[in-house]
Amino acid sequence: MNTAANAKLKNLDPFFHAIKDGLKGLVDGDHFFDMLDSGATYEFRYSFPGLPKKITGSKELIAFFEAHADVEILERYSGLVLHKTLDPAVVILEYEVHGKSAAGKVYDNRFCSVITIKDRKIVYWRDYCDSLGAMNSLGKSD
Asked: For strand 36-44 and strand 121-129, is the pairing parallel, antiparallel, or unpaired?
């Protein structure tokens, strides 16, 4: 992770820290992006205007987060729970992020992420969130 990208993504650090803490010991890497396989797929399983349904490739995912780093100013995360599944390659993370939106509204969002790991890297990510709450805080549902 280069320094320029790291500074640009600072607003999202609580999200990245939640993932790092939740997957501790299961994946390698110091930052969320370092934990990704180069061909990783990130799938958004909720409907959100302007959001793609799926992003494939770690470089593409980094570009997506960089493009959206000014929308949310996260301050902390909470409620982190790791669930192991019958398939040892799949885990589920539940967590919440809190902060404010660029629109100045309170931003509280809950997530449930289904993550597939291979060779200590994330290869597939299915993300579920409170899309109505996010849209309200981002001023998209007014």
From this structure: parallel
Each residue of 85-121: pLDDT tens digit?
A: 999 999 999 999 999 988 888 989 899 999 999 999 9
How far is Cα 91 from Cα 82, in angstroms, rounded to an integer? 7
Task: Please report which residue ranges of 37-130 form alpha helices under DSSP H.
Answer: 58-67
Measured between alpha carbons, how far is 99 from 2 in angstroms, rounded to an integer?
Answer: 25
Burial class (CB in 10 A: 0-12, 13-18, 19+), 84: exposed
- Model-level pTM greater than 0.85? yes
- Report whether pLDDT(54) > 90: yes
The DSSP secondary structure of 9-62, one letter per residue, reads TGGGHHHHHHHHHHTTTTS--SSGGGGEEEEEEEEE-S--TT--SEEESHHHHH
